[in-house]
Design goal:
Layout lengths: L6 E4 L2 H15 L6 E4 L2 E4 L4 E4 L6 E4 L3 E3 L5 E4 L3 E3 L12 E4 L3 E6 L4 E2 L1 E4 L4 E4 L4 E3 L9 E2 L4 E3 L5 E3 L7 E2 L4 E3 L11 E3 L6 E5 L2 E2 L2 E2 L2 E7 L8 E7 L37 E7 L4 E9 L7 H4 L2 E7 L4 E2 L5 E5 L5 E9 L4 E6 L6 E11 L2 E11 L2 E9 L6 E6 L9 E8 L5 E10 L4 E10 L8 E5 L4 E8 L3 E9 L4 E9 L2 E8 L7 E8 L2 E9 L5
Length: 539
């Protein structure tokens, strides 16, 4: 080790190797690598300095520093440790290459690298906040991730070069993951007054999930920057807290689940926080792993859009921006164009633009028979529905194909009967295929076995005057059907007789129009069943 302040001028590769060998050998017994105890190491020309070995650290202390040449290179297999009260380099220039398998950038003071390259497949970790890459004054240096992993480890890294190529990679990536509600693992990129597309090369567990910022209206501040962090949220998309002056996020919203928490059924298990120092407008592209799509089956194969939290609610106005088909494997992306609001962002399920808008899907037991009913608010380009059944919610078999009444923008209801299986619990899913042969899952429901269930009944209606009553009676019964309007006024009464066993009774209403009604069945003075119907197709 050198203990005096000195000036070293390296002018050739040979001199660099000899000097490095001297320093390394002098420090082997201390397992310290190269210790700069207050020297200014000046590298000139194309000199290269190698610090090899598992203890091949570079440690700067007592105001030690490096003055690099533009083509000089410092390669080390150990850790970079800056304990000097400076940023490690006196001027911009040169390159530092981390060639080891597991290396740390640390010390009592952050380092300002010009070019920083990560070599090999190992994990490199900054253990101090505000490590800088790109330079201190001319801002043209680059961060080359290569095939390595740069784990931010709850620290921020600053990229001072505004160029779109200031960060490069081949198969490596930068890890931003933390379990914290406010994520400190941030890439701060000084875009300054430049436009264009920049890729924040995030990744985790072998998956590359970049975030893309395409600046369409740049900042006017020459020191302007955009901070981006991302992390998975496998525990029901919590915890959440707002950075800075943004209030904590209280829930997550889905347009499919009006005014209620969609964090579990309808939001991808990943969030992003984006903050800007100065106003700008950009197109954003979010990436997520298919394994993070844990949405309910109704949404997991549908469409996703982006939402942001403005401190009090999800915007824009509890809706979403952009749309993209969701994936359950590989990596999916969602783009949000023309964004000028930067804060917490999530990806939420959109109300899919399907040919069919489903209102309900229900199943009831009628003795050993299952009676299905579903209604749609509108249908366009609908080819047919199909029902499927499963005992394990994994393997399904088709029960029936049901063809539409019409393709009109008005409510329609459907009925279907099938025999109950002996399985104690059955799953049923309703899907729809359009005229372009695209198929979409609409809903999954479950029902216990209907065997040995008696005295059950169901009312059916397809929007016409016709009412169907399906029931199994243990004895002959006299029933009464009553029809009330939405004001509670009784508009029609029908007397019905049911025989012992299975009954399929058809009733034609005579005193109704195209409105909403409530139909009830009474046994003596006891109401047995009540159902809302919508009459839509009277001539």
């Amino acid at each position: 080790m050198f203990n005096l302040l000195f000036h070293i001028n390296l002018q050739s590769k040979k001199m660099a190797f000899l000097l490095l060998t001297l320093m390394f050998r002098a420090s082997v017994c201390f397992s310290q690598g190269l210790v700069n105890n207050g020297a200014e190491i000046v590298l000139t020309g194309t000199v290269q300095m190698y610090i090899d070995g598992i203890d091949g650290n570079y440690t700067s202390q007592s105001s030690g520093s490096v003055t690099p040449a533009s083509l000089s290179v410092i390669s080390l297999e150990g850790n970079w440790i800056n304990n000097s009260p400076n940023v490690g380099f006196t001027i911009d220039g040169g390159e530092v290459v981390l060639t080891g398998n597991t290396q740390t950038i640390t010390g009592t003071n952050a380092t300002a690298f010009y070019n920083l390259s990560l070599a090999g497949n190992g994990v490199k970790t900054p253990a101090i906040n505000s490590t800088t890459v790109g330079g201190q004054t001319n801002f043209t240096g680059t961060l080359s991730v290569g095939t390595s992993t740069l784990d931010l480890n709850s620290n921020r890294i600053d990229i001072t070069n505004s160029s779109t190529t200031a960060i490069t990679r081949s198969s490596g990536y930068i890890v931003s993951e933390t379990p914290l509600s406010v994520n400190p693992s941030i890439i701060r990129w000084y875009h300054r007054t430049s436009g264009g597309t920049r890729i924040y090369p995030f990744g985790v567990d072998g998956a590359y999930i970049p975030f893309t910022l395409n600046i369409t209206a740049s900042m006017t501040n020459t020191a302007g920057y955009v901070d981006v962090s991302t992390r998975s949220t496998p525990s029901d998309n919590t915890p959440w807290a707002g950075p800075g002056d943004v209030a904590a996020v209280s829930h997550m919203y889905s347009p499919n689940n009006l005014y209620s928490d969609g964090s579990i059924p309808a939001v991808i298990d990943r969030w992003w926080n984006i903050e800007n120092s100065d106003p700008l407008t950009a197109d954003l592209t979010f990436s997520y792993r298919g394994s993070e799509n844990t949405l309910d089956p109704l949404y997991s194969g549908g469409f996703l859009g982006a939402q942001y939290w403005d401190g009090s609610g999800w915007m824009p106005d509890n809706a979403t921006i952009g749309t993209s088909a969701a994936v359950t494997s590989g990596v999916g992306t969602v783009s949000a164009p023309g964004i000028s609001k930067f804060c917490p962002w999530v990806l939420s399920a959109l109300l899919s633009p399907l040919p069919v808008e489903l209102l309900n899907f229900e199943a009831r037991c009628v003795q050993n028979t299952i009676a299905f009913e579903w209604c749609t608010a509108s249908e366009t380009n609908n080819s047919f529905f199909f029902l499927e059944q499963s005992a394990d919610n994994i393997t399904y078999q088709t029960i029936a194909n049901i063809y539409p009444h019409s393709n009109q923008n008005e409510p329609r209801c459907y009925n279907h009967l099938t025999s109950s299986s002996s399985s104690p619990l059955n799953y049923f899913r309703l899907s729809q295929t359009d005229q372009n042969k695209n198929t979409k899952l609409l809903k999954i429901i479950s029902l216990e076995s209907c065997h040995d269930i008696t005295n059950q009944m169901i009312l059916t209606n397809n929007g016409s005057r016709n009412i169907g009553l399906i029931l199994h009676a243990d004895w002959q019964q006299h029933l009464q059907l009553q029809v009330h309007n939405t004001l509670g006024q009784l508009v029609e009464i029908k007397e019905l007789d049911a025989v012992k066993g299975d009954n399929f009774i058809s009733i034609v209403l005579t005193n109704v129009s195209n409105e909403i009604y409530y139909v009830s069945i009474y046994d003596a003075d006891e109401k047995r069943i009540s159902k809302k119907i919508v009459i839509t197709d009277l001539n």
